[in-house]
């Protein structure tokens, strides 16, 4: 599907979708238990991949109640050996969390995904599995999927880099809780995207699991049981919310956009509120009500480090294209290893729209004073975050912007274009 977005003013109320990060973790935590309910989940392409994995390991996810609740029958600590290959589709979170889970099984699990996922790095996690005495192999011997994992690991100590993906640590902590002796994770390098591990620790606590940060990394004792008697409620997603907030800042007029479901949590991407404030946006966060209001504002370029908030890079890049002066996004090399190289993708597509951009390995600079956005046809790079960010740019570009591959928003925000339309955006969907 392609979407045409014509320059528009937006305004009104919109609700953030549930958090993808929390949903992945909660569904798998419920899978590790003997059964639990996940309320207000995000049901999207990515999280459905995690649901399928839970079922492949012997659990069951009842989706008959719709998107408001998932009743999960778990595999009670130890996964069974899947009867077939687990297809993680485009979900890197699923593949990494499931890799550590598969290492608990006595037999072997084969994990694969789409073209993009089969190009993403998994080598450090496979090495960690082998440090624990399991089997972790890439079929092409290049550290990328398809993967073969198993061995019935029972705990131990692993040494792993922290600057490739925090999901490695999340996977090991979640699996380590049900091993005999637990897992200690020693970080070889500084941890990038640390708030995502904080999310993991928060979810683990909610399911009765103890895990702690240590001087060198993290430790989760073994012999624990995942247990949750009350339904676990998934909070709103600040990564997805960032596009609605950006839309308000660049095209929200005097009335602005009010985003509901924005209650505080461990999500690092809530930093988007601070970014908007620093750029000069008229933004107010009522934390008790869980509402953020942002009005169209004159923005100024700033420097933003995204070492802990990689998913915000596309949003910040678009804000920089509208702002006065330069917006420098630094500490972003790890953002190149997402669904696509998001640094290169945003530089390429913003230039098509008339932005002036400078790209270095670890820095993306958008020169706002030299940028005049005008409608063009841009590629979504099969990446939900690129699609949504470019659609926000289309709200302020002269004329009409066509975003190709727009259906990829289903990964994290299936109702994104409906939300934009309801806010007043002029857009049309075209099936290919």
Automatic annotation (TrEMBL):
Biased composition annotated in UniProt, kind: Polar residues: 1-11
Principal EC category: transferase
InterPro entries: Enolpyruvate_Tfrase_dom, Enolpyruvate_Tfrase_sf, EPSP_synthase, EPSP_synthase_CS, RNA3'P_cycl/enolpyr_Trfase_a/b
Localisation per UniProt entry: Cytoplasm
GO molecular function: 3-phosphoshikimate 1-carboxyvinyltransferase activity
Subunit structure: Monomer.
Protein name, UniProt field: 3-phosphoshikimate 1-carboxyvinyltransferase
Species per Swiss-Prot/TrEMBL record: Haloplanus ruber
Gene name tied to this protein: aroA
